[in-house]
Specification:
By secondary structure, the chain is an alpha/beta fold. The chain has 5 helices and 14 strands.
């Protein structure tokens, strides 16, 4: 069975090489903005939204490190109707520059936008005619999640799984054992043609990472 067409537009923050995504089923429809980062990335996101005549309905966060959340308030100011979905275990990181690690970069990121949904693994989220699953991808951070659309064969992994690599686990609150277990138990069992869109770097596939990711060899 062929996958439903999902549009995933990547916008890269040049400072941290952080990927934000605009995700939608069809031009003229609703969209999600995932992991908005540092200026001028939000302005580039706005251009993508305008080019496809989209209506943003939610900001989704994979994990609450500063480089993945710093653009939230800018997006909310531009589109006041958008909701904010954040991993439940990390909601308090939004207003704490020490926990979200931005203090270490001299940025002091503190997000004022209120959380609309505190997400738990196992939840499902609708976007137009598509259903997405919230998967446990914690380990890089205590509450990190991935977003998976089975019909579209698309997986947004944040900083859990990259092309040829995995997320750092030498940071406060991280766990190498937990991250590897969640990648193997919750991500690698997906069909091999599922497209992976990570928090940094190029896209890849489940099949490619099963076959060649050196961090995932048994």
């Amino acid at each position: 069975m062929s996958a439903t067409r999902i549009h995933v537009e990547r916008v890269v923050d040049a400072v941290f090489d952080e990927n934000a995504y605009v995700v939608f089923e069809k031009p003229g429809g609703r969209c999600w903005i995932i992991d908005p980062g540092l200026d001028p990335q939000p302005q580039a996101i706005a251009r993508v939204v305008a080019n496809h005549s989209l209506t943003p309905v939610a900001i989704l966060v994979t994990h609450c490190h500063g480089d993945h959340i710093v653009g939230i308030d800018v997006i909310k100011k531009r589109w006041p109707q958008v909701e904010l979905y954040v991993p439940a275990a990390e909601t308090d990181w939004l207003g704490d520059a020490r926990k979200n690690l931005s203090a270490g970069f001299g940025m002091d990121v503190r997000i004022a936008t209120p959380v609309s949904q505190a997400l738990q693994p196992g939840q499902t989220l609708p976007l137009d005619g598509l259903i997405w699953q919230v998967l446990d991808a914690s380990g890089h951070t205590p509450g990190g999640v991935a977003y998976y659309c089975p019909a579209g064969k698309v997986l947004i992994t944040g900083d859990a799984l990259f092309a040829g690599s995995i997320g750092r686990t030498d940071l406060p609150g991280s766990s190498h054992k937990q991250l590897l277990a969640n990648i193997r138990d919750n991500l690698l069992w997906l069909p091999e043609d599922v497209a992976i869109y990570p928090g940094h770097g190029p896209s890849t596939t489940i099949g490619q990472e099963r076959a060649s990711n050196p961090f995932l060899r048994m």
